[in-house]
Amino acid sequence: MAYSDTLLSEHDIERLFRKVNEQGRRYATVPLHAPGETQNGSTGLEWKGMRPPKGRHWRSSPEVLEELDKQGLIEWSATGVSRKKIFADEKVGKKAQDIWEFKDPQYPSYPTEKNLDLLKFMIRASSSEGDIVLDCFSGSGTTIVAAQECGRKWIGIDCSEQAIEVAQKRLSQIQGDLFSGPVEYTLIEQLDLADS
Ligand SMILES: C[S@@+](CC[C@H](N)C(=O)[O-])C[C@H]1O[C@@H](n2cnc3c(N)ncnc32)[C@H](O)[C@@H]1O
User: Fold this and answer.
1) Position in ligand 1 atom list of the atom nearest CA 146
2) Contact (CB, 8 A) for 57 and 33
3) Residue 63 is inside which H or E element, if any?
């Protein structure tokens, strides 16, 4: 599930997480099962004497559900319906919507340059800090700049010298990390295979 960087407002938190636990933490609950029957896997098995409802499967294996229950992360209704607790303070941002609105850069440094925030949004939604992002058509380097600024490692490849120059210029204009100077990277130039 992708989340944007837009932090939830107080209003969003109160609207989406209506319940408050004994420690004062806001939470909501979600079903423990999802559409689709498991044919052979553990998510179709019995848990606490119950099978998932018809046409559905447990979101986690019975062992994981048991562990979540032990940790108090499952809420039981008076009629024995169980749901998973989701805490507001563990959500970093709003759930991403289906339509993303990002404008192309107004003054691009390269004809096909993409919106930096769009690339950061995609990288944060699909990877974790320290992961490696590969852009094998890196152009002006928007993806690698975004990866760098999101705390990812990166590899950029392009056959155009002009693109590499633009990407290097952009990398020289951003900070490496809080304590270091410029971004450090290794430039590997491909040998012309015709010469070897
Ligand atoms: C649309 S741009 C890439 C934009 C980039 N991904 C970004 O984040 O902004 C496409 C790039 O692919 C490069 N390219 C096209 N064919 C290639 C190839 N066979 N090998 C390497 N780069 C290639 C072009 O030089 C161009 O810079």
Assistant:
1) 8
2) yes
3) helix 62-70
- Taking CB atoms within 8 Å and a gap of at least 24, the contacts of 127-130 are 127/152
- What's the one-letter identity of residue 174? I
Ordered domains of the chain (ranges, CATH): 10-90 (no CATH), 116-195 (3.40.50.150)
Q: CA 121, 123, 127, 131 torsion: positive or negative?
A: negative
pLDDT at 190 over 80: no
pLDDT digits (tens, 9 = 90+) for 142-159: 999 999 999 999 999 999
The CA distance from 127 to 148, in Å, is: 13
Q: Find the 136 Cα to ligand 1 centroid distance in Å.
A: 7
Dist CA 100 CA 96 (whole Å): 8
165 C-alpha vs ligand 1 centroid, how far in Å?
13
Give the type of residue at 9. S
> What pLDDT, on a 0 to 100 scale, did the predictor assign at position 13?
84
Q: Which residues line ligand 1 (CB under 6 A)?
A: 112-114, 119, 135, 137-140, 142-143, 157-160, 163
End-to-end CA distance of the chain: give it in Å, rounded: 48
